[in-house]
Model the fold of this input.
Amino acid sequence: MRRRAAFDVIAVRRRRAAGEQRDASRAAALRRRTSPPASRSVGRAGFTVSARLERFVHGAYPQSSAPDVLRYFSDGKGGKVRAGDTLKNPAYAAFVHRLAGEGPDALYRGETAKRIVARLHEGDLAGSMTEADLAGYKPVAREAVCSGYRVYILCAPPPPSSGVGLLQLMALIERTDIAARGQADPVAWVKYAEASRLMYADRDAYVGDVPNVPVAGLIDPAYVASRAALIGDTAGARPAAGTPPGIVPARIDATAEVAGTSHFVIIDGDGNAVSMTTTVESFFGSGRMVDGFFLNNQMTDFSFVPSGPNAIAPGKRPRSSMAPTIILNRDHSLAGAIGSPGGNAILGYVSKALVGAIDWKLPMKDAVALPNLVARGASFAGEENRFTPAMLTEMAKRGVKVRSGSGEDSGLHAVLIRNGGFDGAADPRRDGVARTITLPPKD
Done:
């Protein structure tokens, strides 16, 4: 069984002449090998434990009581660290020092690889991974899937990630009157929920690490229009998957994607951008640690029903809801980037912020802070405390009864270039920040 790399990245690089680009790539590689990583400094000096991290360390999660977790988060006095304490990780500092010098071989081969395999074979539910399995792992670079939305082009990762789901959802929303209705209109939220349910029905039925995922069909204008025609002012019955062009038979999905994700967005002064979502899958991953980092638990992203596009099988990578997105202007110049952690709810979190920023013209910080509503199947999970009582009542009258609990909190990071500047924000539900850093002039 191939263990999936626990991150999705989408990036855009400013166009350069081919020779200049090659020289820049070599220089970047050299800098990576010679510059001390910031993570090494943090590992040595430590960082301040946040209130959110304290909540997870002391929470009733299975991994919170794992031996490696207890050891790492020990306060040295028989308890666990609390908010405000300094947490150091010299083992990780030493590892990233080797990683900077040796490149990927520091992880996939050698002493760290031996320790990973040995740790996986210990304790309950021991694994069967070998050093050869780890050494043979290869990341796959794939072409982004892109589609228009209003005056922009959105680009997101292809299957087995869920970028096509996000693009389909935005295309459905574009065919409603959500933009004209605004954030204070309960019908706007009902239509948003209905669009989400249609997208998830299709995503779950067709997207996975399988041949012939109907990517083009899922965002085909005629197909999207036929699905959007099902969206009304009230919630309908639980939607079934549609029949997009290039169809493969829709199948049953039973993926229970768990939490444990992070995201960041970076745009530099040269117009290069990266949107990256990373996960260890559930809080503290597998609960097992090697060389200062937790081993991920990504295999739980498979569906354990032995059919469907995300069924577990040798050589497959599990489907991910990650949807790091680059936003382009119609001339393909950079317009921004966005993404979020959140397990299955990621598509809801990212689409909500895009609607807020683009359709409702909100400042990015207000778009990110809008209430989360994740509608999938028969469930309307959301933040009851962020909707007004009147809004909840009016939505319920139309069949959308919001219930708390969409899984992992959103952690949106987003930037939109507009009005002559960077309009950026980090989700107030997490510990992230949005910063513009002025660097000294280049030599």
User: Anything to note?
Assistant: Confidence is low (pLDDT under 50) at residues 1-5, 15-34. The two ends are 49 Å apart (CA to CA).
